[in-house]
Amino acid sequence: MKRFCVLIAALLVVCGISLSAATVSDADDDLFCGDEYCSGAEVNTPGPMVLVDHPDHDAIVRKGIKQWPTWKSAPNVFDWEYTETEWCYFLRGQVEVLCRSGDQHDDGVKVSIRPGDFVTFQAGLKCTWTVLQEVEKHYKFDE
Q1: 113 burial via Cβ count (<10 Å: 0-12, 13-18, 19+)
Q2: Contact 104/29 with Cβ under 8 angstroms?
Q3: What pLDDT was estimated at residue 49?
Q4: pLDDT score, position 103
Q5: Could you give the CA distance from residue 69 to residue 128 in angstroms, rounded to a whole number?
Q6: What is the pLDDT of residue 57?
């Protein structure tokens, strides 16, 4: 279902339809698809390899996010490649992720992440993380 959401989002972007006000949830595997998406032409907006959602408290509890492991980092800059899809909910801090996947839709896209963001990093994404303020997140990798 998640891949279906990405394909639909890509089709809508190609057609010039914005998803900035839409929220799509995936009831089958109980994960988020994201409510922000772009073709990569707009800076500071997620591309197809990064999806950002803003779940409410009930969704966070229902999906068990607070039981996921946590990861913390002091301000830092590092390269990362996702070999598996990662879902994470940011508790605090500020991060900028620069996509470098070589795909015309997301190469060079910078995604700004703040507390309350639920982010899906798709498998295959190559990126540079810039942790601007100490960050803490709950995370879960594709099983």
Answers
A1: buried
A2: no
A3: 86
A4: 59
A5: 22
A6: 94
Rounded-to-integer distance, Cα 118 and Cα 47, Å: 15
Q: What's the pLDDT tens digit per position in 48-74?
A: 789 999 999 999 999 999 999 999 999
For residue 66, the tally of other CB atoms under 10 A from its CB is: 11
* Both tokens assigned to 24: 């799509």
Distances in whole angstroms, Cα of residue 114 to Cα of each of 50, 77, 135, 138: 14, 16, 9, 13
Q: Which residue has the tokens 């830092």?
A: 76
Per the CB < 8 A criterion, the answer to whether 89 and 138 are in contact is yes
40: closest CA among 101, 86, 96, 85? 101
The confidence band for 47, taking pLDDT boundaries of 50, 70 and 90, is: low
Percent of the chain topping pLDDT 90: 55
First CA to last CA distance, the chain = 15
Side chain identity at residue 13, one-letter code: V
Pairing of strands 70-73, 126-141: antiparallel
pTM: 0.67
